């Protein structure tokens, strides 16, 4: 009896030690992960000249919204924001729907071309045509200076296709057979049976596509840089960072000779980068909590096979 009690006490002691070490390690990881973002937010809300005195802080010492005011005073930012939102919404919806439809097709065992087509998509994950051939293809298709250049080239991703197909392969085949016995065709089965059951995978792929669409700027630079009406937020913010580095480069060192009110009405490349980073990141952070539950489920798919 005494040995049993002793073993229980030792077990609780080991468990508490492990718990303490585990919680400590996770807290340290959380601090390391969150600090850069919190610091960036503080820098974006701090006076630019004061930031040059030392940027290792998590709270703005001299609060100001002037950094954001400088960025948002340009009217093209609002137009670019609307284009980014539009491409994110349209691009995410069309990409997820087409990817799910193709994944369902390739998951059908009766489709004789499923293996060759799957291999072709996997091949594109390792090899690409290169920048110049892709540019020539986009130009020959007449997609330059067009909104659809943001949508059509990335309509189906091989990685997202694998995620969707893996999830669909794990669905009970009896559901599809029952729907077909009731007279449903493949498209009806896909819309009414498969899609409602694929919400975890759809949420995961939607988040990947939405983040990619929102953060993309290279396609704007390559194909739509001549048309300001189709410019995206990320591309406009990138141009502002470049202009800040060129025009404000040495102003921070001479700023200490100015008056206090003059210091409050100036920006530096560091403060502008911080404000731009926050403007580009916050919209995605606002969307993520609504998809987190499905995202976690989608990321664990295929982990356990019965």
Automatic annotation (TrEMBL):
InterPro entries cross-referenced by the UniProt entry: MetI-like, MetI-like_sf
Domain ABC transmembrane type-1 span(s) in chain numbering: 81-291
Membrane topology listed for this record: Multi-pass membrane protein
Protein name: Carbohydrate ABC transporter permease
UniProt GO cellular component terms: plasma membrane
SUPFAM superfamilies linked: MetI-like
Keywords: Cell membrane, Membrane, Transmembrane, Transmembrane helix, Transport
Location of this chain's protein in the cell: Cell membrane
Any single GO BP term: transmembrane transport
Protein species of origin: Paenibacillus anaericanus
Bilayer-spanning residue ranges: 21-38, 76-105, 117-141, 147-168, 189-211, 270-291
Family, per entry: Belongs to the binding-protein-dependent transport system permease family.
Presence of the UniProt keyword Membrane in the record: yes
């Amino acid at each position: 009896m005494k040995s049993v009690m002793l073993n229980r006490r030792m077990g609780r002691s080991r468990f508490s030690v492990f718990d303490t070490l585990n919680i400590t390690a996770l807290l340290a990881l959380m601090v390391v992960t969150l600090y850069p973002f919190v610091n960036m937010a503080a820098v974006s809300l701090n006076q630019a000249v004061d930031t040059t005195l030392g940027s290792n802080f998590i709270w703005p010492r001299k609060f100001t919204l002037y950094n954001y005011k400088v960025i948002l005073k340009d009217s093209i930012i609002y137009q670019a924001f609307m284009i980014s939102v539009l491409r994110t919404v349209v691009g995410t919806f069309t990409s997820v729907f087409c990817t799910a439809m193709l994944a369902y097709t390739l998951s059908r065992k009766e489709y004789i071309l499923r293996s060759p087509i799957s291999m072709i998509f996997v091949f594109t994950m390792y090899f690409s045509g290169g920048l110049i051939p892709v540019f020539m293809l986009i130009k020959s298709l007449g997609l330059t200076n067009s909104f659809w250049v943001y949508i059509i080239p990335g309509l189906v991703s091989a990685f997202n296709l694998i995620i969707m197909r893996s999830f669909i392969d794990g669905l009970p085949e009896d559901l599809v057979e029952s729907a077909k016995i009731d007279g449903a065709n493949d498209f009806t089965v896909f819309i009414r049976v498969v899609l409602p059951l694929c919400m975890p995978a759809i949420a995961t792929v939607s988040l990947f596509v939405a983040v990619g669409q929102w953060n993309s700027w290279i396609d704007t630079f390559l194909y739509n840089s001549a048309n300001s009406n189709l410019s995206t937020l990320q591309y406009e913010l990138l141009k502002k960072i470049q202009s800040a580095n060129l025009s404000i480069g040495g102003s921070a060192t001479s700023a200490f000779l100015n008056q206090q009110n003059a210091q409050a009405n100036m920006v530096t490349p560091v403060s502008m980068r911080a404000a731009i980073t926050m403007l580009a990141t916050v919209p995605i952070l606002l969307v993520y909590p609504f998809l987190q539950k499905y995202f976690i489920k989608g990321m664990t798919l295929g982990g356990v096979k019965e």
